[in-house]
Amino acid sequence: MNYYKFYIFILLLFFSKLGNTQSIQFTQKEKAWIENHPVIDFGYEPNWEPYEIYEDGEYSGIVGDYVKIIEEKTGIDMRPIPNLTWDKTMKGLMNGTIKVAPSCAITPNRKEEFLFTDIYIKDPIVIASKSKGPYIGNIRDLEGKTIALSKSYYTIELISNQFPEINIIEKNNIKECLDAVSAGEVDAFIGNLHVITYYMNHKGFYDIKIVSPTPFKNTGVALVVNPEWKDFIGIVQKVFDNVEQGERHQIRKKWIGNEYNTSFFSERFIIWTVIIAVGLIVCFIILYYWNKVLRQIIKRKKTSEQQLKESLITLKKQDEEKKVLLQEIHHRVKNNLQVVSSMIRLQANVNKDPNAVKTLNEAVDRVKTIALIHDKIYKSTEINIIELNEYVDSLYQDIELQFKFGKEIKLSIEGEDIKVSVDTIVPLALILNELFTNSLKYAFENQENPEIKIEFKTLDKHHLEMVYFDNGKWLENAESDFFGTSLIEIFTEQLEGDLKLHKAETGTEYKFIFKTIKFESDSKTSDKD
After folding, report:
1. Ranges 65-79, 365-379, 499-513: which has the least confidence
2. What pLDDT score does 264 carry?
3. Domains of the chain
């Protein structure tokens, strides 16, 4: 019974197809026209996907399938003219160089110029804008705004006539229109629903969205011819009338049914499946090899850990010995500096010459400065690095205690948080010792609000700028031998520095630029070397 039904179905299908192929009855005049026009060159819009697509000399799309039906039913060879745009197609139809275009919307102006078949493809016209753009509820919301439309598209005529307050910018093709929307150059694009959707899903316009329908009705396309070819209109109309609804549906389904590009995702799924599978295989191979090697690594690791423990015990013991040794060295250096300081002070006490006593006391101060440097180095967390601002403040506090000064002196240290090496801090500290001592001795006798300002600033990798200022009114000391000034110049030269001295009513400023400063990074590099 089932076989019987199957055979009946096959016979009905055969006779149905046979009837369809024979159902078109062309008149003798139409047959003669077909015979006289075996080849027809036609115009088109090359970038109106999925309706018209022209790539590498091949014409395809929904309209392309209807063109193939025309070829099958008439025997005419339909050939797309190479390298066209829609603007060129419309101009060719106007001047008669192009006789036919299989896809053209009907407008009042065009009906006066050309002949059309009935509309054989109908689709809604919609508004598209940027995803994060302002709200557009209907076409009236675009009044006073700007939209992009392709040159010679019928939507230009529709919108210009019905909505003249909407500004229109003409672009060469749909892609340029959507690029303008995406870039914010225009507010929206108005066009065919499926064309816009195709560009969104297949051309990378993910930031475009369809926001509203339009009030335009009977929006569809028909085949258009130059009036000289009116016989061809009747021929094509018979072909289109002969296309069954099921076949029309299959054509649309072929190009539009898969609107969201599932084939693309299927291909990506297959590719990613293969990649993941290969990756898993490689991972299994690596894991197998690693498992084989792991035991040897663990064995070697245990041996290394044991050796490391023994080394750590040895290093800890050596570190403790070094700490004891360092404490002993520090204690001896500190004691020796105290001995030197005491001997000089003792000599000063027994000396009768005031100038000699003064010189010896200054020598004691300089020894104390060196002792402070050593003490800071010993107490520093990094033995080769000294924090400059903190050290200078400590140096000043220590020097100030040696002077019985009735007024409070304000010290301000400004600038960057700079760390320098031990090689740098010794001459720098001795320079500051002389400056502090001179200010405290000679500058603030007649100053109500004494103040010392120091500013540090790194100029580049090895250059340091130091500005020392006090607001004192200096007293000239005729008995001074300028030994302190000579020391400042000597230590400045040691750091390859330049010194500028500026005296004014407001105070005295020393500006140093040292060229061979070793900063923290230089010290660490030196340690590594």
Report:
1. 365-379
2. 39
3. 27-117+222-260 (3.40.190.10), 124-218 (3.40.190.10), 383-528 (3.30.565.10)
